[in-house]
Amino acid sequence: MIKITLPDGSVREFEKGTTPYQIAASISEGLARNVLAAKVNLEIVALNFPLTDDAQVTLLTWNDAEGKAVFWHSSAHLLAAAVNQLYTGVKFGIGPNIENGFYYDIDFMDYPISSDDFPAIEAKMLEIAQARPQFERMEISKNDARALFVKKNNEYKVELIEDLEDGQITLYQLGEFTDLCRGPHLFDTATIKAIKLLNTAGAYWRGDEKRKQLTRIYGITFPKKKELDDYLLLLEEAKKRDHRKLGKELELFTFSQAVGAGLPIWLPKGAELRERLEQFLKKVQKKYGYQQIICPHIGNVELYKTSGHYQKYAADSFRTITTPQEGEAFFLKPMNCPHHCEVYAMKPHSYRELPLRYAEFGTVYRYEQSGELHGLTRVRGFTQDDAHIFCTPDQLKEEFCKVIDIILYIFKVLKFENFTAQISLRDPEDREKYIGSDENWEKAERAIVEAAQEKGLQTITEIGEAAFYGPKLDFMVKDAIGRKWQLGTVQVDYNLPERFDLEYIDANQQKQRPIMIHRAPFGSMERFVAVLLEHTAGNFPLWLTPEQAIILPISDKYLDYAYELKQKLEENNIRVQIDERSEKTGKKIRDAEVKKTPYMLIVGEKEEAEKTVSVREHKAGDQGAMQISDFVSMINEKIKEELL
After folding, report:
1. Are 475 and 458 in contact (CB under 8 A)?
2. C-beta contacts of 170-173 below 8 A and 24+ residues apart
3. What are phi and psi of 602, to 5 degrees?
4. Catalytic amino acids?
5. Which of 174, 239, 291, 581 is most deeply buried (CB count within 10 A of its CB)?
6. pLDDT the model gives residue 494
7. pLDDT of 312 higher than 80
8. Ramachandran sector of residue 204 (left: φ over 0; alpha: ψ -120 to 50; beta: rest)
9. pTM for the complete prediction?
10. Is the separation of the CB atoms in 154 and 109 below 8 Å?
11. Between the CA of residue 255 and those of 7, 260, 298, 378, 586, what are the distances in Å?
């Protein structure tokens, strides 16, 4: 007999060899119908996995992220099985689950493929799914695996096999389709009942632009048709909120091929919005004792070799910049941290000066693959709201908690109300990915866990997601339509202070090493604005919006009064424009609504005579006539409430 501990703490005894499905069936018939996979200790396994030792077991359903991952990974194989039947001789690359759904990279050879082919592929997927074939797992030697895929003329799988160790290679068979895969998968396809292929994209094999470009098909599946229908409605709403579309309509930013792909250009309204975000954070940071600094956009290659960024990021960075001086080379900075270490190292420090908090809106550069660029969310040049705190061990937790306070205040003001804090730790099985001693890593990880507990954050823990120099706390935010974004990060670092030989003198006149905290509440200005655009659908808070009001004179006769009104409002720090076009008032109102201007101030004969404005609020309609002073007071009061 073996003892199985369930998530509620209860312990049950089962015969050795019992499977997760049998455990589910022993609890309830409903659970057995809905269970998709299981987590045994920390490993995700299939429902027919035999349990041979005492273990902690979590039964995974559609309500669990890990359950969805297994469901969608299995659906990727279902897609491949359908394509394999419809298109003879195609070759398969990789087909993982992703956050929402799955994709498969396929070499379609000479077959022309577009979204027009999706209905036929979906129909074949449903046909296969309804036959309920099982996902059959097979262990295979490296030689046999290589021979199998050489016979299939699939050089992609053969290349993947070369990177695997003999004795750890598995195949999964679904009907006529056999794939190289570590799994796990669903028991069979019975639960896959609603299927939608979403789009295609080009994907270079293994992300290398010099390799062949495959066709990536994205899709999503659900256990119920209603869930698919709801998701498709969500996609339609997401299209309306697409920051690229809104950014163009609201004249916030643009891109130019002449300037370069992935290099955003901020237009006047966008630049003003970004500046307000910067000033907002600078004001908060000043309250917490930060000092603002400005560093160059480049640095000597040796700086990044010292920090370790050159070794870790060189492949994803722009090529080094050489000068006429022999042996001299510079690097477009991928991170601000090394520069900030040099600021600290400029002079000796006493423990009495710590903590030192250096903040910078620093622009960094990373060479993203052209196929991965996406509006403002994935760019090659972006500005981080970066800061680095140098503190003593006794100050670490308090400083970490203060950074959390800043992030929580930002989320409150901008109405990001649904979020989870992700504690990202290193992978103990792959320590070569990281720098620094085990002792320092353990201290840093403990500090993050304790700070998150002290602040009462709802947390999840992800093994292997730490930065190469230290663990971190990432804030995963759900936007207004339920999509998850990573915004805000805090990281503890014992390693860069050591690599840069940073010191302070303690109370006993001994040299000590400071601890470094990296933090960026916005993450990057570009990505944050993109997420904020989509979260608000372009309806920014009043304090942030580029244009708080627009004056709509009903004819040219009232332009003089419109300009008089504009001057008074600007004297009261209200951002306002005049629509001088010779258009009907109704069209001016509709255009202002499209531009999401919070207030429309309509002026005509009566308003000019009485020195008032007729106020119309975006989405809310007419608010009646107001004295100018009353309108100013209303705006100021609303802004005050937003920033509380």
Report:
1. no
2. 170/137, 170/138, 170/139, 170/140, 171/137, 171/138, 171/140, 171/145, 172/77, 172/135, 172/136, 172/137, 172/138, 173/135, 173/136, 173/138
3. -90, 130
4. 337, 366, 384, 386, 388, 472, 518
5. 174
6. 86
7. no
8. beta
9. 0.81
10. no
11. 50, 8, 23, 13, 33
Say how many C-beta atoms besides its own lie within 10 A of residue 316's C-beta: 11
The answer to whether the peptide bond before residue 355 is cis (omega within 30 degrees of 0) is yes
Burial 23-43 (b: 16+ CB within 10 A, else e): bbeeeeeeebebbbbbbbeee
Q: Which long-range contacts (CB under 8 A, 24 or more apart) does 79-83 make?
A: 79/104, 79/121, 79/125, 79/197, 79/217, 79/219, 80/104, 80/106, 80/177, 80/179, 81/125, 81/128, 81/174, 81/175, 81/176, 81/177, 82/121, 82/124, 82/125, 82/127, 82/128, 83/121, 83/217
Compute the average pLDDT of residues 552-568. Answer: 94
Helix H or strand E segment including 121: helix 118-130
d(C-alpha 45, C-alpha 170), whole Å: 14
Q: Where are the alpha helices (DSSP H) in 372-507?
A: 396-413, 438-454, 495-499
User: 611 in the Ramachandran plot: left (φ > 0), alpha (ψ -120 to 50) or beta?
Assistant: left
Residue type for 525, please? Answer: M
Chain segment 262-304, per-residue pLDDT in tens: 999 999 999 999 999 999 999 999 999 999 999 999 999 999 9
Q: How far apart are CA 134 and CA 590, in angstroms?
A: 56
pLDDT surpassing 80 at residue 394: yes
SS3 content of the chain, % helix, strand, coil (to 5): 40, 30, 35
Determine phi and psi for 199, rounding to 5 degrees: -170, 170
Residue type at 152 in one-letter notation: K
Paired residues of 424 in beta bridges: 462, 472
Three-state secondary-structure class, residue 178: strand
Residue pair 261/372 in contact by the 8 Å Cβ criterion: no
| Distance from C-alpha of 526 to C-alpha of 378, rounded to nearest angstrom | 9
Q: At what angle do helices 268-287 and 396-413 cross, to 10 degrees?
A: 140
Measured CA to CA, the distance from residue 467 to residue 490 in angstroms comes to 11
Read off the amino acid at residue 96: P
Number of Cβ atoms within 10 Å of the Cβ of 15:
9
Evaluate if residue 636 carries a pLDDT over 90: yes
Instruction: Tally the C-alpha atoms within 13 A of residue 535's C-alpha that lie toward its C-beta.
Output: 20
Contact 135, 187 (CB under 8 A): yes
Per residue in 242-254, pLDDT tens? 999 999 999 999 9
The Cα 457–Cα 490 span in angstroms is 14
Q: How far apart are CA 314 and CA 334, in angstroms?
A: 9
Question: Distances from the Cα of 495 to the Cαs of 108, 134, 261, 440, 544, in angstroms?
Answer: 47, 49, 34, 8, 38
Which stretch of 445-449, 498-502, 525-529, 601-605 has the lowest confidence by average pLDDT? Answer: 445-449
pLDDT tens-digit series, residues 79-91:
999 999 999 999 9
